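RECORD TYPE: inverse folding
INPUT: structure tokens
STRUCTURE:
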């Protein structure tokens, strides 16, 4: 596996890679999975028994390229080269060619929605033996520019481990720290990146003046961090809702469920999300969700079965959906087991069997 990160990483792609590695570890015919991460944000912990990390290439791009090339010439024979990000395709194809092993590419969201700026990467993506997308939305957009045979593709949505979340009481100390003890709370979690501006933060902040009229005690937790945070903070101030928008910063993984449990509704009117793993986490905590009709978050709520779906650019529709979500009781939807880890593992096994004997 060539990956941006996995164990020791942070974010949805990192979590997806960890789930893949755990599933592969459980397959009887798998002997070992060697992972070459591009970066490691923290110490690799809780690594499955059959997974071995090669960290010799984490010192930079050149270091990663050298270590990947070295793997291609090793005596060990690999049955599959798993490319966990489209930007790593040139190196993954090199290893696959020298090893004479099939190449699998995984795409998540906007990384696969449009033709890559590097023509070689686009050509290589069309030549993979199998392309796995985390949603039908991502796959359809990939197929709109790729020359790959649709039969060489599969959809493998994220897994959610419900036992790590669940219904629970609000954390009183956290409420006091945030200064929102007596508030109704909505929440969005994601990167605040000036390169994207597509997580839905803008849409919710713009909604806050009208939402405050409908729900006078409303507060909005905008969780996450990035270079776009100062602009969002300035927007909240300009709109006169700075006292109602709490910028919580980056939330450590162990604390995420406490934040989801604070929220009366999780609101994500995003535009470029491949699936929206955070939507599944919120649902797993019993928090009513408002998702977007513009991207893959609608698949995370199964087209409206598990939560509301709304046009993120329609402020009136968004207001109605949020108010309705605030009035729904907290409960974990029965259909959430569609995204269980067991189903994830079964789907992965079925996809891999199309290209290797596993």
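DESIGNED SEQUENCE:
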């Amino acid at each position: 596996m060539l990956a941006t990160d996995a164990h020791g990483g942070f974010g949805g792609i990192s979590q997806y890679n960890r789930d893949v590695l755990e599933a592969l570890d459980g397959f009887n015919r798998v002997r070992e999975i060697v992972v070459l991460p591009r970066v490691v944000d923290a110490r690799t912990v809780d690594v499955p028994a059959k997974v071995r990390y090669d960290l010799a290439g984490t010192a930079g791009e050149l270091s990663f390229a050298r270590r990947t090339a070295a793997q291609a010439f090793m005596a060990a024979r690999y049955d599959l080269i798993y490319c966990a990000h489209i930007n790593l395709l040139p190196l993954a194809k090199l290893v696959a060619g020298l090893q004479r092993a099939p190449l699998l590419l995984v795409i998540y969201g906007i990384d696969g929605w449009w033709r890559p700026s590097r023509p070689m990467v686009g050509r290589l993506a069309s030549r993979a033996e199998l392309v796995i997308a985390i949603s039908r939305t991502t796959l359809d957009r990939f197929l709109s520019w790729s020359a790959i045979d649709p039969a060489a593709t599969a959809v493998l949505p994220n897994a959610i481990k419900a036992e790590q979340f669940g219904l629970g009481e609000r954390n009183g100390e956290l409420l006091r720290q945030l200064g929102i003890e007596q508030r109704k709370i909505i929440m969005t979690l994601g990167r605040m990146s000036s390169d994207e501006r597509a997580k839905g933060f803008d849409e919710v902040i713009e909604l806050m003046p009208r939402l405050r009229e409908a729900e006078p005690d409303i507060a909005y937790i905008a969780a996450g961090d990035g270079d776009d945070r100062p602009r969002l903070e300035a927007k909240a101030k300009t709109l006169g809702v700075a006292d109602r928008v709490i910028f919580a910063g980056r939330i450590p993984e162990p604390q995420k469920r406490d934040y989801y449990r604070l929220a009366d509704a999780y609101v994500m009117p995003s535009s470029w999300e491949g699936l929206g793993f955070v939507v599944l986490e919120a649902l797993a905590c019993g928090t009513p969700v408002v998702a977007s009709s513009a991207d893959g978050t609608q698949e995370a709520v199964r087209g409206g079965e598990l939560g509301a779906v709304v046009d993120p650019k329609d402020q009136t529709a968004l207001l109605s959906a949020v108010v309705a979500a605030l009035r729904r009781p907290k409960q974990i939807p029965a259909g959430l087991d569609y995204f269980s880890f067991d189903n994830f593992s079964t789907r992965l096994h079925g996809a891999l069997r199309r290209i290797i004997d596993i």
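NOTES: The longest strand covers residues 184-189.
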